[in-house]
Write a structure and sequence with these properties.
The protein is of the alpha/beta class. Helix content is 36%, strand content 23%. Strands 13-16-17-18-19-12-20 form a seven-stranded mixed sheet, with helices on both faces. Strands 2, 3, 4, 8, 9 and 10 form a six-stranded parallel sheet that branches. It starts with a strand and ends in a 6-residue tail after the last strand.
């Protein structure tokens, strides 16, 4: 089999990986997360882009609790049966869903649903951006079997470098208890449960990431006046920090543990995508006596770059308000384009409805 498919880590290192496919709809994700954390093991969750779109808060929770989130295609298709253009479209859709859900670029390793792939598919993965397919020992939990049967399936092969393939879905009811037993067996054998990035590192493979961005042409004139946006003043930082923590935004939940840390972050200029934030462009949207959104931006060549933005509610109109602010600000600065890296698919649709020209492209600047 091609080296583009990874079935195990380094057999000389006392590490193993517990991985989970799909994403549950009815069963609580905590059934798996709680076991991993009680046993102090990092898990890797291969979830579909469709699941991430439906449950962006849960996708962020996987990451915020110290685990790894990776792609499992968008629609859970048998990829050995689809033509190349559908295959590549599935990868792109999943990357965009991942970035929109988490605000982070998607890693370049994945797992095929049903372990359904051809050698040609691995070549397509490599073309797409050096992707690797991650396989491993099939636990059989997808059949809805008992924890005892799952353990019996996996235990004989649980050794240095083993990757265990389980599921975190509504069928794999025996999976959480089997997971606990398998982790305890692994510990007895001197194995440490790690995420797939560490497994890949053990065989000399570095994980890559591909960010995306949207570029918007500044319209000649706005369809509606820009209102309720004001420049943030120094005395307003503390109140902004306190209010935005309650919004449960990924900017806070994925990086910070306290209001004081978040406040310090807001007070310091951002350095993102090779661009330094212009503090004079730190704006907040006030409405009905409270804050409803904020934006932090910088300027490069002919573009206003939205470095960070968030809103109190995840409605499409909040992006329209942001786009209007950005267009007016860009026009005042003599700029012709707007760039953004959050909510880019929804923002693209709002541009279409507004009649503005926009395009989603790979972000060559990376995510510095």
């Amino acid at each position: 089999m091609s080296t583009k498919a990874v079935w195990r880590g380094d057999a000389n290192q006392a590490i193993c990986a517990f991985t989970f496919d799909d994403g549950p709809s009815r069963l609580p994700l905590e059934l798996w997360l709680d076991v991993l954390e009680q046993e102090e093991v990092v898990g890797t969750f291969f979830f579909t882009g469709e699941w991430m779109d439906k449950h962006p808060d849960r996708a962020r929770e996987v990451l915020s609790r110290g685990h790894v989130l990776a792609p499992h295609t968008y629609h859970h298709r048998r990829m050995a049966q689809v033509p190349k253009h559908v295959f590549l479209e599935q990868l792109k859709l999943t990357e965009l869903a991942y970035q929109d859900a988490t605000g982070l670029p998607c890693p370049n390793f994945m797992r095929f649903p049903y372990c359904s792939f051809r050698e040609e598919n691995l070549d397509w993965l490599a073309e797409w951006g050096g992707y690797l397919d991650i396989e491993g020992i099939d636990s059989g939990d997808w059949k809805g079997i008992s924890a005892e049967d799952i353990v019996a399936q996996v235990e004989p092969g649980l050794e240095n470098g083993t990757i265990v393939v389980q599921h975190s879905n509504d069928i794999a009811v025996g999976s959480p208890e089997a997971l606990r037993q398998l982790i305890q067996i692994a510990k007895q054998r001197g194995l440490r449960g790690v995420g797939i990035p560490e497994i890949l590192e053990s065989i000399g493979v570095e994980v890559g990431y591909r960010p995306w961005k949207i570029t918007v042409e500044v319209p000649a004139e706005l369809d509606h006046p820009v209102d309720n946006w004001i420049t943030l003043q120094d005395e307003e930082f503390a109140e902004l920090a306190a209010q935005t923590i309650k919004w449960d935004i990924p900017e806070y939940t994925l990086q910070f543990n306290s209001e004081s840390e978040w406040l310090e972050h807001l007070k310091n200029p951002l350095e993102e995508f090779g661009i330094t934030e212009n503090r004079e462009l730190f704006a907040i949207r006030e409405f009905e006596g409270t804050y409803w959104g904020y934006v932090r931006a910088g300027v490069t060549e002919d573009s206003l770059v939205l470095l960070d933005n968030a809103a109190r509610e995840a409605q499409a109109d909040t992006l329209v308000y942001l786009l209007r602010w950005a267009a007016e600000t860009a026009s005042k600065l003599g700029l012709t384009r707007i760039e953004a890296r959050r909510d880019i698919r929804k923002m693209n649709e709002m541009c279409r409805q507004l009649g503005w020209k926009s395009e989603i492209t790979e972000d060559k600047s990376g995510n510095e």
